[in-house]
Amino acid sequence: MEMKAYIKMCDCPEIQEQWKLKKGDRFSFVGKIHILADYEIDALNGRKTDTDCYNEVVKSMGGHFVDHWNECRDGFTWLPRQDQIQEMLPLYDHPSTLAVFFGVFCANKEMYEGVYAKKGYGFVDKFISMEQLWLAFYMYEKHKKTWDGKKWVEEKEKE
After folding, report:
1. pLDDT of residue 139
2. Which strands make up the sheet holding 26-29, listed edge to edge?
3. From 13, 15, 82, 150, which residue has the greatest number of CB atoms within 10 Å?
4. 4 in any annotated domain
């Protein structure tokens, strides 16, 4: 996966506000990708009940990292996996329904011609990973935004 592009796509309030720390979560910090372990979650949530565990996190991740995390999440970008993006779409009552809507989204000729073709690339071809494509689906379905290659753009109402 082209991580720089995916990090940029994920760095928006619509995604970041939904982040609840879980084991295995990926995130970017100062351009480096990190995957959370159980013991790190306790330390990052400020629970110092197990001093040895907390010290190990500080040692492995760096004191500045842990201090910065505890002060604010600026600089941290959650990179949801495909399954996490799919979980953010609760309006679909069954996986098969989600699959149908996703397929319609990918094959939507109007969207292809109206949004992406004008920019010189094919709609599905624009995204080089399934995570990018699912993120685009989520942002369109939930927030009516499309990716222009640099930022999320709100779709204009049809007249």
Report:
1. 94
2. 32-35, 26-29, 76-78
3. 15
4. no
| 128 in any annotated domain | yes
Could you count the other beta carbons within 10 Å of the beta carbon of residue 84?
Answer: 21
Helices (H), 46-129: 51-61, 63-71, 82-87, 95-107, 109-111
Q: How many domains does the chain have?
A: 2
Assess if residue 159 is contained within a domain.
no
Residue 134 dihedral angles phi and psi, to the nearest 5°: -65, -35
56-92 pLDDT tens trace? 555 655 555 556 565 556 678 999 999 999 999 877 7
Q: Judge whether residue 28 has pLDDT over 80.
A: yes
Same domain, 62 and 93: no
Q: What is the residue range of 90's domain?
A: 82-154
Q: Is the pLDDT of residue 2 over 80?
A: no
Q: What burial class does residue 11 get, using C-beta atoms within 10 Å of its C-beta: 0-12 exposed, 13-18 middle, 19+ buried?
A: middle
Same domain, 49 and 87: no
Q: Is residue 9 part of a domain?
A: no
Please tell me whether residue 15 adopts helix, strand or coil conformation: helix
Contacts of 43 (CB under 8 A, 6+ apart): 53, 54, 57, 58, 66
